[in-house]
Amino acid sequence: MLEDYFQGLNFNDFYKLRDGVNRLVSDIMSGQYAKMNYPLVELLEEDDRYILNVEVSGAKKEDLKVTYHENEINIKGKRQKAELSQNAKSLRNELFYGDFSRDIKMPAEADGDNINAEYKDGILHLEILKKEEAKTQQINIDVK
Amino acid sequence: MYSNVYTDFRNSSKVGEEKNLEVRKPAVDIIETQSAIVVLAEMPDINKQNLSVNVKDGILSIKGKRENGKIYGRYLMRETSEVAYERHFELEEDLDTEKISAEYEHGILKVTIGKKEKVKPKVISIN
Q1: Which of A19, A25, A68, A126 has the highest CB neighbour count under 10 A?
Q2: pLDDT per position as a tens digit, A38-56
Q3: Which residue in chain B is spatially nearest to A90 when comparing CA positions?
Q4: Which of B51, B58, B65 is nearest to B109 (CA)?
Q5: Is the minimum CB–CB distance between B69 and chain A shorter than 8 Å?
Q6: Cα-Cα-Cα-Cα dihedral of B101, B113, B10, B66, to 10°?
Q7: In this complex, which of A46, A55, A104 lies closest to B44 when CB atoms are compared?
Q8: DSSP E strands, chain A
Q9: Average pLDDT of A54-62?
Q10: Cα–Cα separations (whole angstroms), residue A46 to A71, A102, B47, B74, B112
Q11: Rg (CA), chain A
Q12: Which residues, 6+ apart, have CB-to-CB distance to A70 below 8 Å?
């Protein structure tokens, strides 16, 4: 991603280099250097399942891949830049494009054989059931 | 020519006040084609009714509120947050604010603003 700042740079060209550094610094300061190649997640625990939401906006459903191995969920995908027509030019480029990958360690109670995935509005939503024996058992106690 | 199209215009915000949501500028790509300017803004997980795109006094404003539904469980990890996205752009005068369209897909808001058709020079034939 650093290439974005120093594209087509001939290192003899001090001014371009200075400009690239300035933009990089200002983008880091303003939080725009968020072109991360790993997606952000949230993991929730409910009584009988875990909910994992992964932020992958811009990715198409067919470009997402979810695998489970030894209590670890791996999410892979890519965000492809739309083809620009011949006369089009890019005026600003803050979005991340390319491959991303993220491993998320799941608690031991997660059942890798019971995972459901949905994709909507840029969020990959996974529901991972807990293993049967790990589900919170509700015990009713008679109050005398 | 379009040096101004991406000028962020205001920082003040009203969209976040109700719930004290953090206000954040969405990351954008801006593309100029022969006939239009296209703005792609990354605003994941927003219900369409919480999205707004409008143009007033030559300023394009895009806003969106990201709110979690009811949470039943407890967080084990949380890197995302409820947020109010907001960003403003000053539009060049040769853009036609009547020709504006927006769509939302895969968490990306796409706004297309057409350019005004240039008045063609009148050719006067010489007899």
Answers
A1: A126
A2: 889 999 999 999 999 999 9
A3: B31
A4: B51
A5: no
A6: 30
A7: A55
A8: 41-45, 49-55, 64-69, 72-79, 89-93, 98-105, 110-120, 123-130
A9: 94
A10: 17, 22, 24, 7, 42
A11: 22
A12: none
Whether residues A122 and B108 touch (CB distance < 8 A) is answered with: yes
Say yes or no for a CB contact (<8 Å) between B77 and A43.
Answer: yes
CA dihedral B89, B95, B100, B102 (to 10 degrees): -40
How far, in Å, CA of A56 to CA of B107, rounded? 8
Q: Are A88 and B34 in contact (CB under 8 A)?
A: yes
d(CA A99, CA A114): 27
Q: For residues B87-107, b (16+ Cβ closer than 10 Å) or e, as one string?
A: bbbebbeebebeebebebebb
**Predicted interface score ipTM higher than 0.90:** no
Nearest to A39 by CA among A100, A99, A85, A92: A100
DSSP-assigned beta bridge partners for residue B109: B41, B104
Tell me the pLDDT of chain A averaged across its residues.
83
User: Cβ of B33 under 8 Å from any chain A Cβ?
Assistant: yes
Cβ atoms within 10 Å of A25's Cβ, excluding its own: 12
User: The whole model's pTM is what?
Assistant: 0.74
Residues of chain A with Cβ-Cβ distance to B71 below 8 Å are: 44
Contact A50, A42 (CB under 8 A): no
Instruction: Please give the structure tokens belonging to residue B107.
Output: 């968490």
B6, B79, B110: best to mutate for the A interface, most A CBs within 10 A: B79
Residue B98 CB contacts under 8 Å (≥ 6 apart), including other chains: none
CB burial of residue A31 (10 Å; 0-12, 13-18, 19+): exposed
The DSSP 8-state label assigned to residue A74 in this structure reads E
Give the model confidence (pLDDT) of B73-107 as tens digits: 899 998 888 889 999 999 988 899 899 999 999 99
Torsion of CA A67, A69, A73, A75, to 10 degrees: -30
